[in-house]
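Sequence dictates fold. Next comes a concrete instance:
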Amino acid sequence: MAKVGKILLAVVQIGAIIALNYFAPGLGAAITGAAIGSASATFAASIIVAVGTVAIALGGALLSQALFGRSLDMGRQKINVRLEEATRWICAGPVLQGGACVFAEVDSGGNLWWIIVHCDSILTSTPAYYLDNNLVTVNASNDVTTSDFTDDGKIYWKIWTHTYTESDPVPSAATELAAAFPSKWPTVSHMLVGTTYSVMRGRAIKLRNRYKVYKWRGPLGLGEPNLAIFADWSNMYDPRDETQTLGDRTTYKPSRNLALIWAWWRTHPFGRKKSESDVNWDIIATEADICDESVVGIESTQARYECAVAAPDNTDRVTVENNILLAGDAQLMFDDDGKTYIDVGDYEAPTLSFGRNRDIITMASVEAQDGESETQGVIVRYTDHNANYTMQPSAPWYNPNYYVSGEGVTFLKIDIPTCFNHNQAMRLAKSVGLRSQPTHKIGPTVGLRGIRALQERIVDIVYDNQFAGDYEIMSPVEVDESGMFCTLGLVPIDASRFDLLTGEELPRPASSSSAGSVSLSLPTGVTIGYNNGRIEASFDSPPREDILYEFQYIAQADWTDTSADQWADMSVDMDTLFAYSGAVDSGVAQYIRWRTVTPGGASTAWYDPPYSLGAVVPTLSSPTNFAASDGTGEVVITWRNPNDVRFDHVIIYRFTSDTFGSATDISGDITGALGANETYTDTVAAGTYYYWLIAYNSDESISSATIGSITGTSS
């Protein structure tokens, strides 16, 4: 028993796995690789053979590939680059994709144009646009209308996206670019075959205002924004869909199903480039159903195994395939005809059994000892769509075999970038944990019936009271030189291996994405009200000198969830800690929101839900200094306009007695500056007259209280 343990430990040393004494933790003997050649080391040697390849049926593909294999770098696909020979990408499933800048020039009107080739995959859904990691709104005219990328409502950025179809590899032409550069970008010469690309245009802007718009981190270094689009990519064959025909790619459809994405990559000309006839589609249909099973988590209900892939062309194709397998705890299998399929992580009662009296010739085992585990749980780093599509750690899964409450915990950490769901990441963490650190491992030698295990994942062992029940195959099934005996490595498994029990799923950790790395908080001490016909706000001093606050307002009747571009900016004075709007319509309820920004472009989210300011009908200030001077054949009337931003004009009324209801308008609208002293001369016959003066706002819906009559005499 001890010898097996030492040999297994040697595998850990050879594999250079840091902080994980996986195969026989705690034995600690310094054994060299030469020991692996002994007859009792078959289990260990088999596992070494499996490392780094899926050319054989791997028991424990997730573990060996996660620990010994390479992980995809699916973070750098979001950025734009300007390189002579930039990396090309293949995408499937929901991916945020940046790309390479292949053209940039300023046209005769001073507008900046550039092209971003996103990837060599078909765009299969309406894209969501991100400029420098900010989700933006693009209207039907291709204008970026989000306020962060406009200046006083002026549109400066436009985006046009083009893709191709399965029946025609030539994407729609960049006619907007050809119109700007008819000699440099003729559509018949530059077709960008087999790509999805976007054309961006930055409008010419006055030099003194460039800092307001050209403040981003794009590929040209001119202050233009980085462009990435989030969408579903690529079509793939689904054998369950009767409308799809194998071999006719025009009938294929997009999917996030892991089994289908694996088959897509296996047969893609830029992937593994295998023939579609080499895949066992009947089994793939079964595995796809398993992937689509609904799993209820603490946050939501999701499919059991989904997948998203962004594969650079300079990455080994097997590495990409292995990363797809990781997201589904999947093994690569071959049927009797040599066709491939995968077996995703899902418990099935074993159909193959090995008994002591009939099948098992020898049995080697390693059992866990108290205190020998170097890790007590697992954390999976996955691509979190809620954290700006960056790699984030899942909540930890605690191994009940080794974790002791109140004691220090060391976690095994594994990257699975093709997983984008937290619940799925935690289920994978559990599967890895129970597989990597079980209570014991066994290595039976069986007769030729062991060959059947090549196409099995779980077997039933009937050996003795200690070694009995369901076991997962953890190594390739090896046949000795005589062809008479098979050896394999096993770890115990139960029906709950691939599901989270009550209490095992923990809440998603707080995001640590780069977009939120700046510690900002919303303004404090905000008070809102009406004054002088406008909205006014006051607030507390900011915690930093470089902090700026932004306030916006909108009439409640005009606001919808999609009207982000209709908000009006308020003037903000950071010295006086005061913000104010323009003149607002009377009797109209308003929404007000605010946020914090830095000169570098980092910001908090807007205050949400927006503050509701009810409809208040303030009385417009009345004119002052109202007087009348007697004259010959005339009366001269003087006054001072209200000093009120709502003020628009005054009207003078006149009658021969002190009865306003019978008075008539004699002046029409008299406009003037706020607080200005005004004069009006009324030419009349001799007599005594009564005058009234009323101030109005622009919509005339409110007015000042009628100023009492004054008398004027004409002689």
Remarks:
- Residues 1-61, 513-518 have pLDDT under 50 and may be disordered.
- Residues 518-613 form a domain with the Immunoglobulin-like fold (CATH 2.60.40.10).
